[in-house]
């Protein structure tokens, strides 16, 4: 179950979006108990973070981001080059979600959009 903190739905704005019936049904199947509207919001936040850079948009706290239920920010298909680095503080892999500890070897990736 997703444990991230969200605003109350009464604080959210209603937005209409048209979806094909098959797409809506598949989203319902994928989302399970989470609900497809929550899944869509998560996907939109992911897109915003990728476009603006994770440091510019923080809808959830660093603690929330360490949650195993937090969806990955990137996939391997988003990466065009990698290089090795040593973590200077606790980090979280944007692909696997695994915790990276200080002084642990990690890979940094250059995305197809030019972000590291």
Instruction: Enumerate how many helices there are, as a single number.
Output: 3
Low-confidence stretches: 1-5, 56-60
Structural class: alpha+beta
Query: Termini, distance in Å?
Result: 30 Å
Strand line-up in the sheet with most strands:
1-4
Largest sheet: 2 strands, antiparallel
What is the overall pLDDT average? 77
How large is the radius of gyration? 16 Å
* C-alpha geometry: elongated
Could you give the count of β-strands?
A: 4
Helix percent reads 25-40%
How many discrete domains? 2
SSE order, as H and E? Answer: HHHEEEE
Summarize the structure.
The protein has 116 residues and is of the alpha+beta class. The protein has helices spanning 21-31, 36-52, 62-65, and strands spanning 79-86, 91-92, 99-100, 105-111.
Descriptive report:
With 116 residues, this protein is an alpha+beta fold. The protein starts with 20 loop residues before the first helix and ends in a 5-residue tail after the last strand. The longest helix is centred in the middle third of the chain and has 17 residues, at 36-52. It is built from three helices and four strands; from the N terminus they run αααββββ. It has two domains: 16-59; 72-116, no CATH class. Mean pLDDT is 77; it is low at 1-5 and 56-60. 28% of the residues lie in helices and 16% in strands.
